[in-house]
Amino acid sequence: MTDFFYQSNPWILPTVMLVVLGLAIEVPYRLRAVVSLKNPNLDPVNALQAGLLTLSAFVLGLSFSQASARFDARRAIVITEANAIGTAWLRADQLKPADTRRFRQVLTDATAAGLAVYQSPDDPELMQRTTALAKRDENQLWGIASSALDARGTIGLSLLVQSVNNLIDVLAQQRQALASHVPTAIVVLTLCLVTLGALSLGVRFALDGARPLILSIIYVLAYVIVIEMMIDYDRPKTGFVSVSLTPLTEQLREMQRGR
């Protein structure tokens, strides 16, 4: 289910929701001969409908807030990662020339691999391979910096080790941010409540014996757009809205020119 929400084609979910919400309104209206009553008491129906619509809007708002917060966090991590890479690159001057070249080569390769992960479609095997390579590069960077610090314990080398440590922490946060989403159970609950709200509208239209087609279409489209935006905010790589990678791409170009 998680793969369907966050890794499938972004057009699939809104299409499914259009069909489901449309049927939830239309089917009770089409069956109004069964649903409708003579002189029905609409107060319970109104109370139930208001409760369902309020609850669905509340849960949808919470889910949207979570997705938006995760999107902002991923955007902030990209900037933090670019800054950490740039700092480590500059502080590599504290190493011996041969170690500096080796350190910067590994750092450039690691940055290019990280960008490839951001830009590629979700692929568990690719993610595993890239994670293994990233950890290998992190170990190499740490080994170069820590070995130099053990041999020549200068303040500059100490700052370089600190920069490598910060970079490793940021890369771990990046991998976690790419793998985490709004919990699937929350998304399913939101979709169920929205569907129940549409169904209550269909029942009410059946009891009234009238269904405002244009307003029904507007209602369905509004909910589908909001739900799709909520899911899309939490698609790190396959959604319509994606995090800008400009800080990382610019940093990589600077590193490639400076080698």
The figure for the number of domains is 1
Radius of gyration: 26 Å
Helicity range: over 70%
Structural class: mainly alpha
- List the secondary-structure elements in sequence, H or E: HHHHHHHHHH
Q: Beta-strand level of the residues, as a percent range?
A: under 5%
Biggest beta sheet attributes: none
Work out the helix count: 10
The count of β-strands is: 0
N- to C-terminal distance: 45 Å
Overall 3D geometry?
rod-shaped
Poorly predicted segments: none
Overall average pLDDT: 83
Question: How would you describe this structure to a colleague?
Answer:
With 259 residues, the protein is mainly α. The chain has one domain (2-35, 55-258). The protein is 82% helix and 0% strand. It has helices at residues 2-6, 12-30, 32-35, 43-91, 97-119, 124-151, 155-179, 184-208, 213-233, 246-258. The chain starts with a helix and ends with a helix. The mean pLDDT is 83.
The gist of it:
With 259 residues, this protein is an all-alpha fold. The protein has helices spanning 2-6, 12-30, 32-35, 43-91, 97-119, 124-151, 155-179, 184-208, 213-233, 246-258.
